[in-house]
Design a protein that fits this description.
heterodimer, A: mainly alpha, 4 helices, 75% helix, B: mainly alpha, Rna Polymerase Sigma Factor, Chain: A, Arc Repressor Mutant, subunit A, 2 domains, 70% helix, 0% strand
């Protein structure tokens, strides 16, 4: 059998076989619907991802603050206390008025 | 007034997914025709076409607009078909013992007298489809584009993303692979 000739003949057969270019009914609508259904989860996914990142950041900050509070125990009474100082400053004018004759 | 392709693409990129529909409608026949070269079942052809359009939507930002949209889309189509072939490498090891009667008759006619075996016969078309299915994915893509669709090597390189020398090497190997398959078919049939 002449294989080269067979190969040429079969290639010619493939060339003569024009591919079918028919598109199924409403194919474009199906693609649009598919794309629309993909867009919604994408938005949701972005939100979920953002919230997860925020949650992780909050946990990290809480842990750092916890560690800081643990490693720096409260000062003994009489020492500088931020909350006490804040209250004193806030009420300074009222105290002044009370002491004035 | 009908919008131009560039306007439709710009609208899609701005988030208007509905503007993609006219593009799908216009170019789907080309995508389906290309997919028919690489897959036989209708469901597979539809899967390929769907995959092409989803990829086109996702990668639309990479379309620069310096070449026709159709060229960009056909590149995507050929690459998707190649991926499909790689993922569905079935039937490659099967034998030719299950040739249908018309296919066997056509082969016998070819052996007896080459000129009487017409290349327009359905049996010849079925036979070449069998042979193509047995080729490796890269060989099938090269044979389809180079020999069947008669495209220049440079264009094949552009469509496949392979370099020109690689296309030439793969074309050489593909022809040899096809010859081997035909040899095997002849042996199984006549020995």
């Amino acid at each position: 059998m002449n294989l080269a000739e067979l190969q040429n003949k079969l290639i010619a057969a493939a060339r003569a076989d024009v591919p079918d270019d028919r598109v199924p009914y409403a194919f474009e609508k199906r693609i649009t619907a598919l794309l629309a259904s993909r867009v919604a989860p994408q938005n949701l996914e972005l939100w979920v991802r953002g919230l997860w990142r925020a949650a992780v950041s909050c946990v990290v900050i809480s842990l750092l603050l916890g560690a800081w509070a643990f490693l720096n125990p409260a000062q003994p009474a009489g020492a500088d206390d931020l909350s006490q100082n804040f209250v004193t400053t806030l009420l300074a004018s009222v105290d002044q008025n009370d002491t004035m004759p | 007034m009908e919008r131009t392709e560039a306007e439709l693409i710009a609208a899609v990129l701005k988030g208007d997914a509905a503007s993609f529909e006219p593009l799908v409608k216009k170019y789907s026949p080309r995508v389906f025709a290309a997919a028919h070269r690489y897959a036989r079942r209708e469901s597979e052809i539809e899967d390929i076409a769907q995959e092409v359009w989803l990829k086109a939507f996702d990668k639309l930002r990479s379309y620069r607009g310096d070449a026709p949209f159709e060229h960009w889309l056909m590149r995507l189509t050929v690459r998707t078909c190649y991926d499909f072939l790689r993922a569905h490498q079935r039937n490659r090891e099967s034998s030719f013992s299950d040739l249908t009667e018309p296919e066997s008759d056509w082969l016998e006619r070819f052996v007896a007298e080459q000129d009487t075996a017409s290349e327009n016969a359905d049996a010849a078309k079925a036979l070449i489809n069998r042979v193509l299915e047995k080729l490796s994915p890269s060989a099938r893509v090269v044979i389809t584009l180079l020999e069947i669709e008669d495209r220049p090597v440079k264009e094949i390189a552009r469509l496949t993303g392979w370099s020109v020398p690689l296309v030439k090497v793969r074309a050489f190997r593909a022809r040899a692979e096809m010859r081997k398959i035909l040899e095997k078919m002849a042996k199984e049939k006549y020995l």
